[in-house]
Amino acid sequence: xxxxxxxxxxxxxxxxxxxxxxxxxxxxxxxxxxxxxxxxxxxxxxxxxxxxxxxxxxxxxxxxxxxxxxxxxxxxxxxxxxxxxxxxxxxxxxxxxxxxxxxxxxxxxxxxxxxxxxxxxxxxxxxxxxxxxxxxxxxxxxxxxxxxxxxxx
Length: 153
Fold this sequence. Notes:
By secondary structure, this protein is α+β, with helices and mostly antiparallel strands. A hairpin with a 5-residue loop joins β6 (61-75) and β7. The protein has one domain (2-142): Nucleoside Triphosphate Pyrophosphohydrolase (Alpha-Beta Complex). Strands 1, 2, 3, 4, 5, 6, 7, 8 and 9 form a 9-stranded mixed sheet that branches. The longest helix is centred in the middle third of the chain and has 13 residues, at 47-59. It has helices at residues 47-59, 125-136; strands at residues 2-3, 6-16, 19-27, 30-35, 38-40, 61-75, 81-94, 103-110, 141-142. This is NUDIX domain-containing protein.
């Protein structure tokens, strides 16, 4: 979601056997950059739902959100103010199938090995390095800090 130069983003670190899934993006503002599965929160969309939807769209995986490393507020390389909600997820279903055109590669990386990723290889490296630090240091908060909005149809 974008309003007056503010972009809301949901991002997920998917954990499996001590490793984290990273994807290589091929998007106009992030050509061949590593990132966690993530994307814009749509207008009126619940943040937790958005996070799971983006993971499914980009990777084909279904996830359960089990924690958060927090909320990150920064100016992007396109000069937008971004408010990024970062979550930790576990796979509950689906199979790894990358979104064509926008995702060119994926890799399971040991959590500690994330520290070795070069800044120039990361999308928004100053923010990803903060998230990686929080993952390595296990600065993870309960998902209950997020209050889900219940939609009534």
